[in-house]
Design a protein that fits this description.
13 helices; mainly alpha; single chain
Length: about 400
């Protein structure tokens, strides 16, 4: 059975990754299309950055307009840096995808319990990815739809665009308004896809790696039962203790190689995504702070409140998905030690294979006590504690920002 065929999360994310252009190509035509999409994506982000920079320049002195542009600018820098980072590690990223597809999603030798673990991982991925994607698209739609609602009943000279454009053209008049609106919408859509697709795939990899650690725990702790279940010479297992001991040791070596492969996979994820993890954590506290200010201090501006209500929910969901999936890897990788200790290591007799098996189990327990994790370029480990730390930092930034603005207004 191929889980990839029925995995909504993987199928949906791969489609969006193709829109961004960072995906595997089967031939030269596909590679040209990928290059075109990457170029278009970068141009769209730089176009949006130019709009925000010009708006901030012309709105300098208006604190709320500047904070609005700053929040939008941070949301643009996030996907832009991710694109450049993944382009630098493109080959390693593709190897991670291929290895996951071959060894995690399409293996046919799962038993019923292991299949439940993998299906559970698929369900977690689908829930987080669909929810996060919906919130991001809702944020993008609010940027596009709210100006249309505001423009109802207005004259051509009073119409507004989703974002202010400072050019020497009558942008509120036809056809300049329609052209400018379409350009901003196309850019906004591409930015939205870039905003969530990379985090979605990191979430998929993290949850499936954690699931593979669970599968490994089950196999190590039930090594004797699994051998009896799969072994054809069951009578020989019972009567010949030497054969049983050799079989246990051979099977354990297979599981040790699986453990080593998972550790190496986690290290490769760390190499590819450690800069992205650092960027995420540093940016999220600022984004949540600015979004909270736009929501709570916007007075009667329903447009701003609506947009940033979706945006802050998207940020909170993205941060939770990111930190929780990393935390799952930490917990499940450490739990391998407990599973090895619970295993039937007392059953094999004290033959050469039996003694070697016990020594190897001790090494497995010692190695598993060091958790696999994703770090922010080595500065910190990403876990659920990171989530609470970011929220605490964002609250501190918000308090400081509000006090400074209120003191300036009083003066």
């Amino acid at each position: 059975m191929s889980f990839l065929e029925n995995d909504v999360a993987v199928s949906l994310t791969s489609i969006f990754m193709k829109f961004v252009g960072i995906w595997m190509a089967g031939n030269q035509h596909q590679q040209r299309m990928r290059n075109i999409m990457v170029t278009y994506n970068v141009i769209a982000i730089f176009f949006a950055l130019w709009i925000q920079a010009m708006d901030m320049y012309h709105s300098w002195g208006n604190i709320r307009a500047c904070l609005f542009s700053t929040s939008n600018t941070l949301s643009l820098i996030l996907p832009l840096l991710k694109i450049f980072i993944l382009l630098c590690h493109k080959e390693d990223f593709f190897r991670l995808i291929l290895y996951m597809k071959k060894n995690f999603l399409e293996l046919r030798n799962y038993d019923d319990y292991e299949r439940k673990i993998v299906i559970g991982c698929n369900q977690k991925c689908t829930f987080f990815i669909c929810f996060f994607t919906f919130l991001t698209i809702a944020t993008t739609a609010s940027y596009m739809v709210i100006p249309l609602i505001v423009n109802i009943g207005k004259n051509e000279s009073d119409r507004v665009l989703p974002f202010n454009m400072w050019v020497n053209l009558p942008l509120s008049m036809t056809p300049y308004f329609e052209i400018s609106f379409v350009l901003q919408v196309l850019s906004l859509y591409q930015i939205a896809v870039s905003y969530f697709c990379f985090d979605n795939f990191l979430c998929i990899m993290n949850f499936h790696v954690a699931g593979q650690f669970q599968v490994l725990q089950y196999r190590i702790s039930n090594i004797a039962d699994l051998i009896i279940k799969t072994e054809e010479k069951k009578e020989k297992l019972i009567t010949d203790s030497l054969y049983f001991s050799n079989k246990c040791y051979t099977t354990l070596k297979t599981y040790i190689r699986q453990h080593q492969a998972l550790i190496a996979y986690c290290r490769k994820i760390e190499v590819v995504f450690n800069w992205i993890a650092l960027e995420q954590v540093l940016m999220f506290s600022l984004l949540i702070c600015l979004d909270g200010y736009q929501i709570l201090m916007a007075n009667e501006d329903i447009k701003t409140r609506s947009i940033f209500s979706f945006h802050i929910l998207s940020c909170l969901c993205q941060l939770l998905m990111f930190t929780y999936s990393c935390d799952c890897i930490i917990r499940e990788s450490v739990s391998v030690a407990t599973a090895a200790y619970k295993g039937p290591w007392t059953l094999p007799p004290m033959t050469i294979s039996g003694r070697m098996m016990r020594k190897d189990l001790i090494i497995v327990i010692m190695r598993a006590s060091i958790p696999c994790c994703l770090t922010g370029k080595g500065f910190f480990i990403v876990s659920l504690e990171t989530y609470t730390s970011v929220l605490s930092t964002a609250a501190s930034y918000f308090t400081l920002l509000r006090n400074n603005i209120e003191s300036e207004n009083d003066n």
